[in-house]
């Protein structure tokens, strides 16, 4: 039997609301002073998405630790999904960063953030405020929230949410706090504040967040940047080919910008 050369440890920590956030800390065995990444899932997703599990294990084999965690109101974490907002998720990420930085075997000066979809919004919001991460990897980023919301929801649905303070979406009930934050999110102002290198990975067949949005984002980034396009991938990046290319692009980038 082949033994894994990494360990996966359930962990938890508190956010600003004293809600317990659940995570998994994946550590290469027998080494210290480890570079690390924090993995941020997307809307109504969790840390246990297969691509995140495989990414954590792949990086561990390369000597990189990782923390993947559930935002409040998602997965195993405490909190109410309906109260999810961009600001709250950015705050959750700040507490995740603080937790990871304090782990004995982690090199706190070598931490990157990998986000998917809405998780990218939390990542850039956090980084714009504190510039703590060495680099960002954005998978199918959904930064243009205002434009995307207009495509995802009808004017009638938006008006109803503003009246009733919530809207029922296919993957859960969203609150007015998220909607208002998304419609007010000035992504260009935030992305201009990012000084760290940024890698964008996007699927050619993404229908939820079309590739044109990542091309627009790429042009707006002033820092060191790269855009990788996976021809066969949709928004989830869950196909075998999409996961394989995501792993390769991510590690090659981290090797240059983090390790």
Give an overview of the whole structure.
This protein folds into 2 domains: 6-143 and 188-257, Rossmann fold (3-Layer(aba) Sandwich); 145-184, no CATH class. Helix 1 packs across helix 9 and helix 2 packs across helix 3. The strands form 2 sheets. The chain has an 8-stranded mixed sheet, with helices on both faces. The protein has a two-stranded antiparallel sheet with strand order 7-8. The mean pLDDT is 95. It contains 9 helices and 10 strands. It is an alpha/beta fold. Helices cover 39% and strands 25% of the residues.
Q: Strand content of the residues, in percent?
A: 25-35%
| Helicity range | 25-40%
What summary fits the major beta sheet? Answer: 8 strands, mixed
Structural class: alpha/beta
* Lateral arrangement of strands in the main beta sheet: 1-2-4-3-5-6-9-10
As an assembly, this protein is single chain
Terminal Cα span: 31 Å
**The CATH C-level class name of the largest domain:** Alpha Beta
Radius of gyration (CA) equals: 17 Å
SSE pattern, N- to C-terminal: EEEHEHEHEHHEEHHEHEH
Number of helices in the DSSP assignment: 9
Number of strands: 10
């Amino acid at each position: 039997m082949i033994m894994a050369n990494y360990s996966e440890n359930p962990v938890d920590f508190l956010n600003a609301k004293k809600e317990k956030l659940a995570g998994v800390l994946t550590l290469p065995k027998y080494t210290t002073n480890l570079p690390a990444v924090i993995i941020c899932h997307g809307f109504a997703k969790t840390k246990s998405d297969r691509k995140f599990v495989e990414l954590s294990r792949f990086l561990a084999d390369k000597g990189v630790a990782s923390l993947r965690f559930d935002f409040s109101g998602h997965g195993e974490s405490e909190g109410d999904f309906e109260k999810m907002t961009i600001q709250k998720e950015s705050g959750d990420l700040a507490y995740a960063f603080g937790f990871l930085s304090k782990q004995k075997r982690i090199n706190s000066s070598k931490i990157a953030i990998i986000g998917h979809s809405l998780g990218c919004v939390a990542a850039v919001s956090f980084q714009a405020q504190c510039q703590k991460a060495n680099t960002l990897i954005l998978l199918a980023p959904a930064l243009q929230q205002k434009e995307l919301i207009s495509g995802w929801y009808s004017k009638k649905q938006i008006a109803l949410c503003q009246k009733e303070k919530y809207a029922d979406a296919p993957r859960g009930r969203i609150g007015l706090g998220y909607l208002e934050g998304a419609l007010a999110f000035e992504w260009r102002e935030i992305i201009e504040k990012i000084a760290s290198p940024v890698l964008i990975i996007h699927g050619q067949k993404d229908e939820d967040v079309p590739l044109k949005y990542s091309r627009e984002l790429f042009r707006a980034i002033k820092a060191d940047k790269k855009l990788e396009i996976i021809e066969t991938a949709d928004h989830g990046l869950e196909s075998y080919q999409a996961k394989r290319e995501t792993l390769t692009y991510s590690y090659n980038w981290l090797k240059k910008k983090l390790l």
